[in-house]
Amino acid sequence: MQQGTLMRKVKSKSWKKQRYFKLQEDCMTIWYQSKRTGKTESAFSISDVETVREGHQSEVLQSVAEEFPPERCFTIVFYGRRGNLDLIAGSAEEAQCWIQGLRQLIEPRSFPLTFALVSCTWIRDWFQKADKNKDGRMNFKEVQRLLKMMNVDMNEDHALRLFQDADKSESGTLEGEEFVLFYKALTQREEVLSLFQEFSEDGKKLTLLELVDFLREEQLEDEGTEELAMELIDKYEPSETARARHVLSADGFLMYLCSVEGSIFNPQHRALWQDMNQPLCHYFISSSHNTYLIEDQIRGHSSIEGYIRALKRGCRCLEVDCWDGPNGEPMVYHGHTFTSKIPFREVVSTLGKYAFKVRHPSPGAGGPGWSLVGEDTCAEGSWSCWLPTVQDPRGQGPWRCWVTQGVSLSSTPQELKHKILLKAKKIGRLEDTLDGAADEVPDVSDEDNGAEAEEERRRAKVMLAGGAPIRRTQHGSALQKDKETLAQALSDCVIYCKNVPFQGFQEARSHSRPSEISSLSEAKARKLIRDEGNEFVRHNTWQLTRIYPSGMRTDSSNYSPQEMWNVGCQIVALNFQTAGMEMDLCDGLFSQNGCCGYVLKPSFMRDKETLFNPNDPSSREGPGPITLTIQVISGQQLPKVANSKEGAIIDPLVRVEVYGVPADQAHQETKYIENNGFNPRWDETLQFQLHVPELALIRFVVEDYDKTSRNDFVGQFTLAFANIKPGYRHIHLLSKDGTSIPPSSLFVHIRITE
């Protein structure tokens, strides 16, 4: 892999260009250049690569399957929303060389990165970037250029002093360990050192008892503190001598604070920590809208990548819009639009591969398999042909048996592991299906019963039950001719989530069943929240509700899911392809509980007689408001703004946003720090009062201040209030796409008081 390899880069069946690919000497960067011009087209870092897929595992490579065998084909998949790179090697041997080599390089990242490993990679990466003449040394001019690249605006005299202190050989250049010394001096954390010395009697080490004091007094660790202190020393102290003496050095202390245990996110909540034996309606469920789309709603591209990305992100409710295609084969796309189409069989095959993979393997996560809710309607001639032919990837018979076997009307997420539930219209009653009979005429009235704005009514007719138009009947009365007939094979698969029109809370109490579900547009849901907040909460204690975006959101923008969660709506469907605050909230809520896609609702939202109304926080039973105090201390190695000018340095500020019931919605921000994205210090305290902390999400946003225009996004991190660990904590920032950007972080101090 060290030599340039000639391969075909494929974008479509007709676009196949030959490019030379080469792994750089740093083993961290791959560049490729045109065979014809010799000009370097692009480069990417190994750290950007999520996985490598062999064979025809993309739509692009499937389109050239007859021309090129799978042994020569592979796909490089990047983190976030960056497009895949589809490649065809000259031989099967070359393809395997790249596939196995790339997997070896990215494999270590399947384990949690330690602070030391991140720092080592970071140092090597910056050295390679700044060493322009590639002689393995760095003169002071190159160091000055490096500081600009690293977001540091440092006084030249101070920079020269650090350079000379690190130049032990007095050669006028830095190499190897000398550059490491320079980097360590540059990254000296005075705020951490002063905290360390506050608890250290001699200022050089923390004894076991001193570390226990810190954990109890500041980190509020109240159980097994001495055992925890021993574990932290064994895990993070770099000196063998210090470990043997059960003491923690300043370096070990910093490594602990930058670790999982020092994160703001409670590590115990990363694993499966909630009760999974309650009815489905007692959980918030990670849900996507028009999952197959990866762009806009009118002309966007439909792709199985939409399903793969959503599933790997922890999504548990997917949307499959099926339409009759050529030769009776169903196709998936956004009906009555210009979006592209994908075969239904490819979607189902993709579900078989990715539906039950663990997003973030962790001890106690319960393994893969939390149940999946799929939305679908399908023409009568299509469903019965294709669904039974797809096999259960676990080798337990046809997919159709996998969908329905062992499901009862009172099933819980625990009982539904490795099951797929279909949300759709149904012929007859659920009870009849379980008894083997199904002969009633389906109710196919519009979901919103004609009460929505014109675009929502039009959408309901086109997207019946969130799916596709069903083939119209050719017999019966004039009224029946306007109805649509469901495929019996599809109807038989609907065991739990029978779709019914919503006709008011009183009607639902009188005639609906817990096994049924109604879909509401965001506009209708907002009106119900405003007018009948408590009734909405009560309704969601015993029946599922799905919310979908307005038909006017043709750009695939999102509404805020928080207001829907405030009344207990379980299936709040978002456009996963669109980055922004709304998806940050979704990722923040579902990043807990083993990333299984299910989060248990607060107890007052599971009581059928609850008095809770999000518009009146005093209706919540329990303790009074709590105060969240956040001291924003410092930032570390913040990234530059995308597409910024060369030499530009950010002016960072931190904004803390609270999302929850209306009374808790708030935001505050720090001042901006001029020309320092490397190690800015704010030392500012922000305070919030939370009336319903059980529903609150906290979003930390770093922006580049601009006095003449809108601030630029730098990074963010969002989590549920219930997952916050008090004390001195690091917040590891995420990009706009929700991917990590190590080692960028914030250092904060958190206090929670009643």
From TrEMBL:
Species this chain originates from: Catharus fuscescens
Positions of region (Disordered): 437-457
Top enzyme category: hydrolase
The entry's keywords: Calcium, Cytoplasm, Endoplasmic reticulum, Hydrolase, Lipid degradation, Lipid metabolism, Membrane, Metal-binding, Nucleus, Repeat, Transducer
UniProt key word Membrane: yes
GO cellular component: endoplasmic reticulum; nucleus; plasma membrane
Catalytic activity: a 1,2-diacyl-sn-glycero-3-phospho-(1D-myo-inositol-4,5-bisphosphate) + H2O = 1D-myo-inositol 1,4,5-trisphosphate + a 1,2-diacyl-sn-glycerol + H(+); a 1,2-diacyl-sn-glycero-3-phospho-(1D-myo-inositol) + H2O = 1D-myo-inositol 1-phosphate + a 1,2-diacyl-sn-glycerol + H(+)
GO BP terms: intracellular signal transduction; lipid catabolic process
Domain of life: Eukaryota
Cofactor annotation: Ca(2+)
Residues covered by the PI-PLC Y-box domain: 490-606
Domain EF-hand per the UniProt entry, residue ranges: 118-153, 154-189
Annotated membrane topology: Peripheral membrane protein
Subcellular location: Cytoplasm; Endoplasmic reticulum; Membrane; Nucleus
E.C. number(s) listed in UniProt: 3.1.4.11
GO MF, any single term: calcium ion binding
Start and end residues of each PH domain: 1-107
Acidic residues: bias regions: 437-454
Domain spans labelled C2: 606-735
SMART domains: C2, EFh, PH, PLCXc, PLCYc
Pfam families given in the database record: C2, EF-hand_5, EF-hand_like, PH, PI-PLC-X, PI-PLC-Y
Name of the protein described by the UniProt record: Phosphoinositide phospholipase C
